[in-house]
Automatic annotation (TrEMBL):
NCBIfam families xref list: B_ant_repeat
Domain DUF11 as annotated: residue spans: 69-143
Superkingdom per UniProt: Bacteria
Species for this entry: Oligosphaera ethanolica
Pfam family, one: DUF11
Protein name: Repeat protein (TIGR01451 family)
Amino acid sequence: MLTETGVNTGVFTGSIMTVSAPAVVLNDGTIQVTSATTVTASYIDGIDANLLRNQARTDSVANAAPMMALTKAVSHDSAPPGSEIIYSIAFRNAGAAAAHTVVIMDAVPAFTRYVPGSMRLGLANSSYDAAAVLTDVADADAGTLNGTLIMFLIHSVAANDGVDLSGTDEGKVFFKVVIE
Ligand SMILES: [Ca+2]
Ligand SMILES: [Ca+2]
């Protein structure tokens, strides 16, 4: 259904729902699009502003959205009580638009204790030692310890640059725990 934007403007708008879901239902009036898809509408313009009739037109709308993926890893699969292990969570934006205010949360695992001041934020290929030190308190940096919840707030993650392990479209956060 198209609606004219005003009285005799000759400009019409319309919308069709979009959704990203695993199941596709045919003829349900919904467009299934993935990130970075361009949707093109072709139509016949019955009469345009110059009074030309039945002109073939094509309009396109680019659909771009962020698409975040996280991968968690641990430095040791098993370790004796008292030893420190490092958790890392790699984040990556596989979408065609920047992601804003990305919050990564993790809980201190059972039978471990968080190592105070051990949160770090680094580049995708960063080691723990090379990553920036974050404080546990809620302040201007990305890290906050809230009880046993570890939180990282990343203000902006750029759109996918298509290059693995580099760029501002990805990065890594870290924290340490001690096995009890
Ligand atoms: Ca902090
Ligand atoms: Ca990249």
